[in-house]
Write a structure and sequence with these properties.
The complex is a heterodimer of chains A (282) and B (338). In chain A, 76% of the residues lie in helices and 0% in strands. By secondary structure, chain A is mainly α. Chain A has one domain. In chain A, helix 4 packs parallel to helix 8 and helix 8 runs parallel beside helix 12. The longest helix of chain A is centred in the middle third of the chain and has 29 residues. Chain B folds into two domains: 219 residues, Rossmann fold; 67 residues, Alpha-Beta Plaits, CATH 3.30.70. Chain B is built from twelve helices and 14 strands. In chain B, the strands form three sheets. In chain B, strands 6-7-8-3-9-10 form a six-stranded mixed β-sheet, sandwiched between helices. In chain B, strands 2-1-4-5 form a four-stranded antiparallel β-sheet, covered by helices on one side. In chain B, strand 9 and strand 10 form a beta hairpin. In chain B, helix 3 crosses helix 4, helix 5 packs parallel to helix 6 and helix 9 packs antiparallel against helix 10. The chains are: A mainly alpha (282), B alpha/beta (338). Bound molecules: adenosine-5'-triphosphate and magnesium ion. Adenosine-5'-triphosphate binds next to strand 2, helix 1 and helix 12 of chain B.
Chain lengths: 282, 338
């Protein structure tokens, strides 16, 4: 090394020779496949949780709060007893909570893109959607965590699913599929919207009516006609009915089919749309 | 460059508008394989926008841009395989540690987990970052930040690397470290295209320099060609007695054979110097004539002075200028010859 090195501290010094060696030994592997790249981005999201575990607050405290609040607030009045109400309301609250949490997908992406590191990702020779699919898979972990919290607390409070473990697992599986699909709306908006606040406001405006104006708390028959009409076609209602059926062992094949169809439609529309706006994002 | 090889970068008539802002406006550049090419321009000149188009992140509105022989619009995938971009701002994830960032990128370039880890450790070592490897990047100093940014660009040795203002905001020592890395990259066979706001950086590092302003090239050539046109240096003289400035101006103009600039300070003047050997002579002429010099300095022309020479006006931040519709047509393109 020819440059004077007297004033350098050992820890900070850069050795040109070492840089040269590092450059020379570098091999040129094949570009990773789409699935492998997605898993790498999933790993990145997990690392972020490791460094900032506070971000799990929403998937642990929200569910606990919602479940306790609504069970004891409405239980007596609506079903005569909290434990009777719990059998009906728990699948509903599960759907509502996890659907609410999908909002954070958009917020996280929005923040991530504003920081600028996506320029690096977009200049890499990888399957482009993997940048977004990876975080969505990581969100799947968060949704599962939230579901587990609710189910465990529910069991403690007296939730007894007639269809047993299999039914509960099937129900949660359906919920994850729906929420993964719903998340694509938030990825589109997360890229398009300039500010986090605006995005948050819009997400709330969509999610609050969607989750509350449904059959989560009350049977639709008790509602005025115009409201009942909305509630019956609300995808959340269908999902809740399907989940109740799966967990308690009623036949709900029709609802499941419709929920899966809606999920497929969401991905088919918002997946490509997300990629389109992602490519355009300057 | 041999005749059959493609230029590493070939840009002709490249244009990018943002609304009414012409960020890049008919840019023309050609970079030979293996070269270290410097793009010099003030804030808002369009450096970042141009690089983002070359790195296939932004679609040009018009013109041609070919990187390693591939068109940026029709063959972006082929370019991404062989080119790396170190952006001006956050180009690694601040929430992750330096090592995690490198392993992540190693994976994305197709390394197996174990190879990615080995590669990451090798680079951390070479860049003097081993001690900080496990810390979140947001705790890094500016110099460390820039080094991890560059390390993140060479997980697979690229044929061409874009470095957007790699040393802006660094102290002299950190800047030297980055320079050393850049020189090592070039001697390893990688073509480097870097942008900078500092003439001395372009001068010290680059084989060829393009000076850009308002998104177009206003001068292009080797460092010595550029300096021949703007002067190798600038002599600043400050007099004891402002009354003597006129006399000093005459003397310097004659002995240095150069035009003299006077500015706000009534006792100061500066002259562009084409031959440093004449400076000592000029100063002794002043003393002989009884003009007392309080102090003097001979420095390289600043970017401002380069711009003043090339365009006849100072290098203002164009973003501030955009609003008041200043006509940039006064900036005539000028070919620099030795
Ligand atoms: N995404 C964008 N939207 C609107 N205007 C933009 C955008 N990006 C750049 N510009 C404008 O284009 C012009 C060129 O910007 P650019 O960032 O390319 O300059 P630069 O030479 O990199 O400047 P700096 O030295 O400050 O980094 C500026 O006037 C800037 O305001
Ligand atoms: Mg810039």
């Amino acid at each position: 090394m020819s440059a004077p090195s007297t004033e350098r501290t050992e820890a900070q010094s850069v050795a040109s020779d070492a840089v040269l060696t590092a450059l020379a030994v570098g091999s040129r592997p094949e570009a990773p496949g789409g699935w492998s790249a997605s898993l790498t981005f999933w790993w990145r999201a997990m690392l972020k949780i490791k460094h900032v575990p506070e971000q799990l607050f929403d998937v642990t405290m929200f569910p606990i709060m919602f479940l306790l609040m609504f069970t004891y607030l409405f239980g007596g009045a609506l079903a005569g007893s909290t434990s009777a109400y719990l059998q009906q309301v728990l699948p509903g609250i599960l759907v509502m909570t996890v659907a609410m949490i999908t909002m954070y997908t958009g917020l996280t992406l929005n923040r991530d893109i504003q920081k600028g590191v996506h320029d690096r990702f977009r200049s890499l020779p990888i399957w482009r959607p993997s940048t977004l699919v990876g975080p969505l898979l990581a969100d799947g972990v968060r949704y599962t965590l939230a579901s587990t919290v609710i189910l465990v607390l529910g069991l403690v409070l007296g939730f007894r699913p007639d269809a047993g473990v299999g039914g509960v697992a099937a129900g949660v599986g359906l919920l994850l599929v729906f929420c993964f699909s719903l998340s694509w709306i938030w990825t589109t908006l997360g890229i398009v919207m300039r500010s986090e606040e605006a995005l948050m406001g819009l997400s709330m405006m969509v999610l609050f009516p969607l989750t509350f104006v449904s059959n989560v708390f009350v049977p639709p028959e008790t509602l005025p006609n115009w409201l009942e009409a909305f509630v019956t076609v609300n995808p959340i209602t269908l999902l809740v009915t399907a989940m109740r059926g799966l967990m308690h062992g009623h036949a709900v094949g029709g609802e499941i089919a419709i929920v899966l169809m809606i999920s497929a439609a969401l991905v088919a529309v918002f997946g490509p749309l997300t990629m389109l706006v992602y490519r355009r994002a300057a | 460059m041999n005749g059959s090889a493609h230029p590493a970068v070939y840009v002709d008539g490249l244009v990018k508008h943002f609304g009414s802002t012409r960020a890049v406006d008919g840019l023309q550049i050609e970079v030979a394989p293996g070269a270290l090419y410097g793009v010099l321009g003030p804030n808002g000149a369009g450096k970042t926008t141009a690089l983002r188009m070359l790195a296939t992140l932004l679609r040009p509105d018009a013109g041609t841009a070919r990187v390693l022989g591939h068109d940026v619009v029709t063959e972006p995938k082929l370019i991404r395989r062989r080119v790396s971009m170190t952006g001006q701002f956050a180009s690694v994830d601040e929430d992750l540690s330096g090592r995690e960032n490198l392993v992540l990128l190693g994976r994305l370039w197709g390394h197996r987990w174990r190879d990615a880890a080995t590669r990451a450790d090798g680079l951390l070592e070479a860049f003097g970052l081993t001690d900080a490897a496990g810390r979140q990047v947001k705790t890094y100093s500016g110099g460390m930040r820039r080094r991890i940014d560059i390390a993140a660009s060479i997980l697979v040795t690229p044929d061409l690397i874009f470095l957007d203002e790699p040393t802006t905001g660094l102290d002299p020592r950190s800047r030297n470290q980055v320079w050393e890395i850049v020189r090592a990259l070039v001697s390893g066979g990688t073509t480097v295209l870097l942008t900078t706001q500092y003439l001395d950086e372009a001068d010290q590092l680059a084989d060829r320099i393009a000076v850009i302003d308002h998104g177009r090239v206003i001068a292009e050539g080797s460092s010595s060609q550029l300096k021949a046109s703007v002067g190798v240096g600038v002599l600043h003289v400050r007099l004891h007695d402002p009354e003597q400035r006129l006399r000093a101006e005459e003397l310097l103009a004659r002995t240095l054979d150069a035009s003299i600039q006077v500015d706000g300070d009534p006792a100061a003047l500066s002259a562009r110097v084409t031959d440093t050997a004449r400076v000592a002579y000029a100063l002794s002429e002043l003393t002989d004539a009884g003009v007392e010099v309080a102090n003097f300095s001979l420095g390289q022309p600043s970017l401002d002075e380069v711009f003043l020479t090339l365009t006849g006006r100072p290098a203002a931040d164009q973003r501030a200028e955009d609003g008041d519709g200043l006509d940039p047509s006064g900036a005539t393109s000028q070919e620099v010859t030795a």
